Recover the amino acids of this structure.
């Protein structure tokens, strides 16, 4: 039963109309019942007045010795509803000498019924009769009283008063409540019958329209609503047009989103979109990989401590529309530098953060700073020597031919060193900036090493060195031949430079994990352990190397750059006073 009533839907129009009709009925019933009430009361008063006159005619004068109380009892009659007429006889002294509802023995207990205590008696003295309504003190009943003078010209004959019960609440119910309820129920029945018919059809059409709207939301096609209501038909047409337009816009949005996602994923920059609560709403694949996997998640705030600068940037974007910061973190034990640009979208109150990896740029800047510092340090010495020697010779104060020759030799050596340094720097710059053209070809490394040995045979003979080429003569590798020659020319020159006389230099070759590893080993001074990691840096030379040999400190840097350029890998092992061995590994198929 409860579910049945809960399922009943009542329209506001029906409730408002019912409320309005109820108000009208209330007004009509009030006016009508007031009229009926007053009219019926007036009729009762007139009836009591007639009865009072009749009783007065039937009663003897006060001069006769009779029992007026018995007389009052006999004159009291009942109406059709068994309401008894109350008859009261009052003498000239305002004493009650007879009352149909009071025993004779109790009459003396009644107070005087004078004009000062009874309104109806006061009115009877001044008018044809007096009337009022009140609750009787002696009987406790609600009565309507009518009093008349027995002799209008002589008050000495006393008064006759009659009264009938008058139920105010019963009258209120009979003349107001009952008619109101009857009319109200009739209005509800008629209004319900009419409104339910209208509302049923309206709800049926609205349900059809609702189903069509839900289909439109899901992107489905909807049919035309057949309704007799012109407004609903117009509304249905509007919904259908909106659905068609919505489907078109959804298709366009999906297409644009796909293109947008493809563009973002193909960018070299990371893109993260945050909502107003700083939670990640979107991120392309590059952004997820830039800081290392699982550093932040969709629909969550960034909690990782090393990425807190991004949260600080988002807070700044509340006050300003765009901001840039730089951030450096470690990713897989490697220092990474990022330029993070943030902007706030005013329309959606979201934040777009674009992340650029500037690690290579920072590394290049550091290399250039180091290059300038190293160049200024390395070039300063030969330039100073050349300048000092030139000024000394130019002054003409030196007349000794041997001393003049010594200064001239010093100028020549330092100018050659300076020229060699410039050539190496130019070669390095050409390699780093892609000026070197790589041409891979298949060749025999054994023969190429022999060609290199032939070009510097004079140096080998001068230092009485024994060079062994143990590379198999049937081995072939595929790489850039010119780079191969430059790499091993520099390594061989280093080995000759740092090897003592009558020592040995050996070229070896091994196969290791699908790679050909060619090594060159000498018996020189060796490299300190703390210098092994820096030997491939520009201008770096160990303390022993500076003390015993000349050099620019760029040869091994050239070897490192060339190896990286052609896809090879170079490494070194060394022991002090035992020797040094360099390894260069090439891909082998």
């Amino acid at each position: 039963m409860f579910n049945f009533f809960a399922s009943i839907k009542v329209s506001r129009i029906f409730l408002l109309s019912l409320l309005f009709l109820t108000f009208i009925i209330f007004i009509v019933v009030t006016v009508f019942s007031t009229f009926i009430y007053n009219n019926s009361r007036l009729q009762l008063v007139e009836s009591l007045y007639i009865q009072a006159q009749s009783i007065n005619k039937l009663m003897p004068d006060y001069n006769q010795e009779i029992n007026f109380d018995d007389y009052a009892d006999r004159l009291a009659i009942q109406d059709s509803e068994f309401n008894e007429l109350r008859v009261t006889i009052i003498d000239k002294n305002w004493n009650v000498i007879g009352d149909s509802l009071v025993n004779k023995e109790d009459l003396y207990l009644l107070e005087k019924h004078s004009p000062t205590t009874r309104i109806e008696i006061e009115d009877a003295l001044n008018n044809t009769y007096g009337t009022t309504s009140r609750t009787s003190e002696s009987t406790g009943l609600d009565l309507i009283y009518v009093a008349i003078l027995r002799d209008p010209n002589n008050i000495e004959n006393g008064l006759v008063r009659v009264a009938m019960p008058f139920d105010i609440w019963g009258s209120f119910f009979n003349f107001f409540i009952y008619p109101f309820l009857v009319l109200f129920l009739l209005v509800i029945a008629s209004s319900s019958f009419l409104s339910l018919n209208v509302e049923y059809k309206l709800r049926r059409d609205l349900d059809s329209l609702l189903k069509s709207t839900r289909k439109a939301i899901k992107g489905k096609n909807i049919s035309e609503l057949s309704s007799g209501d012109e407004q609903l038909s117009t509304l249905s047409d509007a919904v259908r047009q909106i659905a068609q337009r919505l489907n078109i816009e959804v298709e366009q949005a999906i297409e644009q989103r796909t293109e947008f996602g493809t563009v973002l994923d193909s960018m070299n920059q990371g893109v993260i979109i945050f909502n107003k609560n700083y939670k990640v709403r979107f991120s392309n694949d590059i952004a997820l990989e830039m800081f290392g996997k699982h550093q932040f998640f969709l629909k969550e705030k960034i909690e990782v401590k090393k990425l807190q600068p991004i949260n600080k940037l988002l807070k700044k974007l509340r006050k300003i529309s765009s901001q840039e910061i730089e951030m450096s973190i470690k990713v897989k034990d490697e220092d990474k530098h990022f330029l993070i640009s943030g902007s706030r979208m005013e329309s959606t109150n979201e934040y777009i953060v674009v992340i650029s990896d500037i690690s290579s740029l920072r590394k290049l800047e550091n290399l250039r700073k180091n290059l300038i510092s190293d160049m200024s340090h390395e070039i300063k010495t030969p330039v100073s020597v050349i300048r000092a020697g030139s000024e000394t010779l130019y002054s003409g104060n030196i007349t000794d031919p041997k001393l003049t020759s010594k200064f001239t030799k010093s100028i020549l050596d330092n100018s050659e060193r300076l020229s060699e340094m410039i050539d190496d720097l130019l070669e390095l710059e050409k390699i780093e900036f892609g000026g070197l053209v790589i041409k891979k070809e298949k060749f025999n490394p054994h023969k190429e090493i022999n060609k290199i040995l032939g070009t510097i045979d004079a140096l080998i003979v001068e230092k009485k060195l024994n060079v062994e080429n143990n590379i198999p003569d049937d081995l072939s590798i595929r790489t850039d031949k010119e780079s191969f020659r430059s790499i091993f020319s520099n390594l061989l020159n280093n080995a000759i430079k740092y090897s003592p006389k009558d020592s040995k230099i050996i070229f070896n070759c091994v196969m290791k994990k699908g790679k050909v590893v060619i090594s060159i080993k000498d018996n020189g001074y060796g490299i300190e352990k703390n210098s092994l990691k820096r030997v491939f840096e520009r201008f770096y030379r160990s303390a022993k190397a500076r003390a015993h040999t000349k050099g620019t400190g760029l040869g091994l840097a050239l070897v490192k750059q060339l190896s990286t350029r052609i896809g090879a890998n170079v490494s070194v092992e060394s022991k002090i006073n035992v020797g040094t061995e360099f390894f260069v590994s090439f891909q082998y198929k």
About this structure: DSSP finds 15 helices and 17 strands in the chain. The radius of gyration is 62 Å.
